[in-house]
Amino acid sequence: MPRVSGKLVKQAARVSPLLPYLLRANPSLAQAQQELKWIQAELPKHQWKNAVKRRNAYEPLQYILESQPFGSLDIICEKGVLIPRWETEEWCLKLSSVLSILGKKNLSILDSCTGTGCIPLLLNYELNQLANLNSHIRAFDISSDAYRLSKRNHQAYSSLHPSSATNIKFIQANLFSESIVSHVGIQCADLITSNPPYIPAHHYHKSVGLDGISRSVREYEPAEALIGHMEFYEALINNLVKPLSASGFVFELGYQEQADYVYRMLKDTEEWRVGVLKDSASNIRCVLGWKSNSPMRVLGQLCSSIYS
C-alpha cells in the first residue's frame, strides 16, 4: 500500500485530529471520514481514540464496532469469525425473494459453514417474519468460535423477533465427517446453502500488489474460514445434497473453475440443472443447482447463465 502523503494527513487533521489515523486503512479521505462518522455514532466518546488507533493497524472496522449490517439485521462480529460481506447479503436477499414466490409452508433449509449465522438468520427473517412462510432452518460450522457467535446472534435475533426465532437451530458439526447427516439431525432438506472457504491457498498467500487478499483480511480474519477450494464443493454435494435428497442448492464461490467443478459433478444426472450468479460488480458469486421437476427450479431465475 502506498504511504499516506503529508499533505493528506494535514488535510485530514484540519477536519478532525482523529481522522489521520484512518487514512492508512482507507483509499480516500472521503471513506476515512465515513468511517469516523460510524465510529462516533456507534461508540461512546471515550472509545474513539482507541478505535481509530486499532483501525490504523488495519483491524477491520466490524471488529471494532462489533457489528455489521446485513439486510435488515445487525450481525454481531467478533475476532475469530469471518465478517459478513455485502456480496453474501446481496444473494441472500435475491434468494429469499424467489423463495417467497413459492409460498411453500414447510420449507426446509440447511446452511453449512455458517460463520456468524448471517445467512440463515437473514433468510429466516425474510421468509418467516416478512413473507409469513413457515420455513425451518438448521445451520452448522466446525469452528467453536463460529458456533458460539452464531448462537449469540440467534439470541439477539430472538429478542427482536421471538415469533420466528424458534424456526432456526445452530449446531457445531464437521462438513467432512461421514456422519454429518446424523449430526445435523434431519432426514431431508429442500435447499442447501453455504458460503464455504473458497480462496485457494496459493491465492491467499499472494501479496496485495499481485491481487492477493487485503492486509486487513489476512492479519485479522480466520484463515480457516477463507482458505479452501474444490474439496468443499465436493463435500457439499456428496455429504449433504445427495444424502439429504435436496432439491436445490446455492453455494457462494469466487472462481469460475469452482462452478465448473460443481457442474461436472452433476452433469450426468439428468434431473439436475446448474447455473451461476454474478454479483452487482459483475463478478461470479454463486453456483446454483436445482432438480428440474421440483419447485426449486425457481432458482433458475437468479442465474446469470445456465449450463447447457
Task: Explain what you see.
With 308 residues, the chain is α/β, with parallel strands linked by helices. It folds into 2 domains: 6-57, no CATH class; 71-306, Vaccinia Virus protein VP39 (Rossmann fold, 3-Layer(aba) Sandwich). Helices cover 41% and strands 16% of the residues. The strands form 2 sheets. The chain has an 8-stranded mixed beta sheet with strand order 5-4-3-6-7-9-8-10, sandwiched between helices. Strands 1-2 form a two-stranded antiparallel sheet. A hairpin with a 5-residue loop joins β8 (272-278) and β9 (284-291). The longest helix has 17 residues, at 86-102. The protein is globular. The chain starts with 5 loop residues before the first helix and ends with a strand. The model has no long low-confidence stretch (mean pLDDT 94).
Write a compact overview of the structure shown.
The protein is of the alpha/beta class and 308 residues long. The protein contains 13 helices and 10 strands. The strands form 2 sheets. The chain has an 8-stranded mixed sheet, with helices on both faces.
CATH class of the largest domain: Alpha Beta
- CATH topology name of the largest domain, in short, is Rossmann fold
Structural category is alpha/beta
Spatial gap, N to C terminus: 43 Å
Cα-based radius of gyration, to the nearest Å: 21 Å
Number of helices: 13
Q: Could you describe the largest sheet, including whether it forms a barrel?
A: 8 strands, mixed
What's the helical proportion of residues?
40-55%
**Residue fraction in strands:** 15-25%
Number of domains: 2
Would you identify the CATH H-level superfamily of the largest domain?
Vaccinia Virus protein VP39
Q: How do the helices and strands follow one another from N- to C-terminus?
A: HHHHEEHEHEHHEHEHHHEHEEE
Mean pLDDT: 94
* Strand neighbour order, sheet with most strands: 5-4-3-6-7-9-8-10
- Per CATH, which architecture of the largest domain? 3-Layer(aba) Sandwich
